[in-house]
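Can't paste images in this forum, so I'm doing it all in text. The chain is below; anyone willing to post the predicted structure tokens underneath?
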Amino acid sequence: MDSRGDSGVWGHGGDIWAAAGRFARSPDEFVDFSVSVNPLGPPPGLSEFLRARFHLAYRYPEPDARELAHELAAVHGVPPESVVVGNGASELLMVLVAALAPKTALTVEPTYSDYRRSLAAHGVVPTHTCIAEMKFPPSGPDVVFLCNPNNPTGDLIPEEKLPVLPGETTLVVDESFMEFVSEGRYSLAQRASRGELVVVRSLTKIFAIPGLRLGYVVCGPALAKRVRELKPLWSVNGLASAAGLYGLGRGDYIEETRSFVRTESRRLGEALRVPTHFHTYWSAANFVLVKLHRGSASEINRFLGERGMLVRDCSNFIGLDSSYIRIGLRSREENDRLLEALRQWQEA
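Text version of the structure:
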């Protein structure tokens, strides 16, 4: 039994090491549907590109990943001083809360748990509202966290339906999955650069490099300066920066990803809806939220874990329970393997 017990509830997806101990398998044997990274894998040629640049590991990286920050600024059409690159969105959320120093906060649930985790680290206990209603107190908290598209539901909130908040409230919009959206995609980066709100983005997910960790924040120059001051100077390693620059130059790969996600998400959802044991929700992102009509998430994770597969148990998301799982898209062949296993599970 792993250190998290036998519940099957992982704090995040991707803990294949704990799963390996639990199911007596090598970590490399698992097909991990519990994470939500690019189902096509990293950009073609990235491995060779990084192998030729491994010498970057022998020197200190460029402070604040300046070259990558300038390239991201050009992509979004914003000033470079408004972009801060970090060691993944999780690090940036933690530093961002420190920079904003809120006394009160609100999250839109169910959603990514690191908003609450980052707030808790600074002594803030947020209230929450439901993503289906998005009701906000009239006085307004100091900061509101909103994930768009939302993790784990996949909801995409159109720009015209974003909440209008009091002037003293900072809206932080996490666009970590926006690059996977094919229809209705937009970014608030330009508004963020003017100080109207804050945008958090991930390159880890679209480039399928979770082991390298790479993300960025777009915000007003004054806040960006404060975030840089609080963030470790060399938190982004040289290989991660190089990978980000390489990926940004592969627009064809990003478009191919969007096309695959659009068609495969629909195919997977339709295949799961055929039996009566599953209800799937429409998703704009590269994952699908599923409600089980029989059994629990921990039971299905045990069944799949014994067969070398993992899905995300969503029972620790606010507003969800043990009847929900999240499936991150993988290759068509791997998705078919999961569908066959789920068919066997429902017939058992």
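The radius of gyration is 20 Å. The chain is about 35% helix and 15% strand.
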